[in-house]
Amino acid sequence: MERAQRHPATGCALELLVHGVGGTTPERMLDDPRTVRITGDDTAAVFRRADDVDAESRPEKHRDTPVPEAYVWCNLTSGNSARALWLLLLPFMVVNLAHWMRPATAGRPRTVRLYGLLVRLAGLTLTVLLVAAACEVALDLAAWQCAGTPACAARHSWLGLLSPAAGGWWSPPGRRLVLAALVPTALTGLLWYLSHRTWSAYESQQPMSRDPEPEEDSGSGSLGRPGFWYGRRLVARLRAAHTAAGLLTVAAAVAAPAAAFDRRPGGPAVLDVLGWLLHAALLAWTAAVVWVVCRRGRSERRLDRRLDRHLARRLPLGALLLLLLTAVYTGWSRPGWTSTGRLAGDTAFGGLALVQSLLVIALGITAHALYRTRPDPRAVLRGLGGPAVATLACALGGVMSGGVCQRVADWLDGTGTSIPGPPVTLTWQASIIPPVLLVLLVLCGRLAGRTWRLARALRTTVEQEHPGEPPDPERTRRIARTRAMATLTDDAPLVVGVVSAVTLALGAAALTGALTTGRTPAGAASGTHPALQGAAQTAQFLGSWLIGLGFALFVTWGRRAYKDASARRTIGILWDVGTFWPRAAHPFAPPCYAERAVPDLTWRMATWIRSTGGRLVLSGHSQGSVLAAAAAWQLTPQVRGRVALLTYGSPLERLYGRWFPAHFGPDALEALHRDVNCWRNLYRLTDPIGGPVRPDGDRGFEVDRAPLKDPLAYGRTARHPLPAPVLGHSDYQADPAFAEEREQLLARLRPDLPAQRHEPPDGTPSDGHEPPDGAGVQGSAGRSSG
């Protein structure tokens, strides 16, 4: 590769702007209709104004202001309409977030590994739950119950091929189950394909190679480790294990009814023995899958480029072979075998719910043990944020699985009496939804009342901030109301904690009721007090209706987002926040965009500074500030010495520091302040997302500027003859403080000091990588928007 031209340290400065959630255009970020892509592709790229493409060759033109450059990454999450379907993967994304919510700790490496192991096992149960729901729909409700019932099969002509009345080759129960097993098998294959395709596009992006810094573990933290943003090996291993688990779930659902029939007195001994051998093989391969999930977590201390190719192939292929053997075994002719009642759905779903409850409880105990080693009063729920979120992930999986089963059962059973319907366990779980929603409604009402009272109290504060100006009651109320509503973000831990605790308690009660009574809530309450019986019937009816409505909303929202760009943008914002973290607990979660964005930013900053010796202001808004911080941690000390960090509307402490204390807690943010040359943070009291980096102000370093005025003018002035808007989370560049802080950061970078370069005699960069072609003529950022 032709090496880029190296410029002397001329004092040229860049401002590399990184936008926030929802994305924007380079024209808007740079405030210029003519922009040029400097480097990158259609997914993520760096842009400049057309007049600034060769700015490094004309440094005298940019001595007073930095060259603006924009990094646009919105297409990594919300650019493709097909990604709206990722909404159906929401439980997987939520359980993956629980992995990163581990409390900060002093030592205890075994307990840390145990925490990650428990979350990975919880993620594995979600995969089994999703595939089990597909088996319940295709095998139990359609092939076993409806196709085996003449009245139900007569209403659905597409089941005529499977009906015993037709007397066809597929009419025996075993062969009906084998044919229906194609549906959950295809679902498992689809999840494997989506994970493999996104794995190739995201996890395969290699960051810059460098040696780990000796102080990383105690200073920069995990986000500064060389292999943090390269999880290719773990995702490949988990993908193989989860794919095998899905196929084994299908095999177990197909083999269990045939084995139960063969174990009857007087049954064929050969088939009985084959059934036992097949179940033993399924259990052995299941143990191998669990062992692979438990064996090893993430490798972050070094850039691990190896792949477990044999493991990734053998696990799914072995499970697929067992599924084929199961199909042959179940499809064997068995005279006298008829389909009556339900399949063993209660045992399967009840066992999954019990395992998930035990995992969440164990996760809570582990998180509490970690929190006690280094208590952080700002951490969400005193370190129990991860277990609470894992509980919500399991609840979301149950709602989606139960909603599918309930809606399909209602559709197949037109009269409501021809087939038994879904398992009793799912009916009990649906019945707890109304009380959970009632608790949530009461909690929201309480928060609304508190916000209203706070807004009234803030009116006096707003008036006192503008003495001598004519009072405007309506404008005062609006400003106070915006400030009060911005505080609702800080109440999210309360909502999550209460909902997860209520869900866990009621879920345990529902599981106990289903396993002890074997009947629906209405059936179990029959013969009791009329009020109790009426409450049970109401809860069962509303729960069934609400769980189906919830799933219908998921599907409808996904379909609307596929066609509507505005809805797709809204869903894209969800992924911008939820998929920042690598896939460490579930391989079928939506991919991590930061594994592409952080290496992009790191390469851009390192190559530009090494080729020009200039100064660089890394300017991040909202979620862009999180990407900026992660990229700054990945730089070498020589490069970081030429970088200043400017964040605004930043959730670094308010959201990430509280919810992810092990990675963005007080110690990590203090280390970031030490690592970069200088750092300033801007925020507003009307911003519901951004906040100060040091809300307590007692950490011994200054990062935050005093809260910016919002609006910029209370009334009409000569500078603002029209009413100034309340900006909240957007348009921080409109405040004069933005330009002022940027100039001070550039001044603190000491343009008279040459960049530190440690290069071999041939001029190759010290990390072994050559700068890309044109690195010497690429510049910095521009305007960002949220």
UniProtKB/TrEMBL annotation:
Q: Specify whether Coiled coil is a keyword of the entry.
A: no
Q: Which UniProt keywords apply?
A: Membrane, Transmembrane, Transmembrane helix
Q: Which InterPro entries match?
A: AB_hydrolase_fold
Question: In the UniProt record, does the keyword Transmembrane helix occur?
Answer: yes
Q: This protein is called what? A: Integral membrane protein
Give residue spans, biased composition: Basic and acidic residues.
739-772
Annotated transmembrane regions? 114-134, 177-194, 240-261, 273-294, 315-332, 352-371, 383-409, 429-449, 492-515, 535-558
In this chain, the stretch annotated as Disordered covers 204-224, 712-786
Q: Which organism is it from?
A: Streptomyces thermoalcalitolerans
The record's annotation in SUPFAM superfamilies points to:
alpha/beta-Hydrolases
